Write the structure tokens for this entry.
Amino acid sequence: MKRSILGVLLVLTFVAVGIAAAPPLTFKFTDVHANKTALETDTYGVNNAGVIVGDYVDAKSVQHGMILAGTKLTTVDNKACEAISGTGGISFYGVNSAGAAAGWCTSAKTGLAEAFVYAKGKFTPVSFPKSNGTEATGINDKGEVVGLYLDSANNAHGFLFANKKYTAINVKGATQTAAWSINNAGEISVYTGVTTTPFAAYILKGTKFTKVADPNAGTDGTVIHTLNNLGDVDGTYYDSAANTHGFLLHGGKYYDVEDPNSPNLSRADGLNDKSVIVGRYGSGSFGGTGFKATYK
């Protein structure tokens, strides 16, 4: 990824999500560029109005938060963030129907990850209590936020922030857990591994974890990203050669989501209810390109 004291022990159940021969889906890919001079554009989230959020690296190699509505770019910077490029620079990872975006950056003062929700030109901090840093990656229409925080040993734990209360999310037996997205029904996409392989992915409903595993994944596993309001989910899996491939789980069936410009180095990140996926292809660090894919 670009990256429990209050926690509750959640019941882990391993339920295989249906794997079946998938009928053809048609995917149409379009490159996404923040502007003509951007060295790199990273697209992480998209809402039902088609607003895309993420970040871009400008001609001076400085990373900026990005909100892109059609061709209209809103550049977002936070004085508390380090003016850096790559992992740790300001970025948004999820956006809801009202246009509120969840994101994080590395603090210029502490060097720790600082999370926030950005709406109507204002930053609202999101900070898991007594943590070594918080990253916010998902937000639903109720304003509920998910992401991860680091404990005193810098192990990652997922979290939910709802009704002004923080709740830790941990997969039993996993050293590191992250929550990525939350839909309007309160279902949360969760994965383990975070900084090391193998990865394992789950959908959390209440206290029940349902495993998501792309059948083409190798030993490095599957990372889940966005879960929409219709039950579709996207993410990334690693094949036996450790190449990355985006995937879509739709109607209980898995489909590859691979930009034709880089079929072995693609990932699917954001997903809305209008059959639109956003993601990235390429190696990043100025070699990455955002994409939008529609499917039917």
In short: Residues 1-19 have pLDDT under 50 and may be disordered. The chain is about 0% helix and 50% strand.
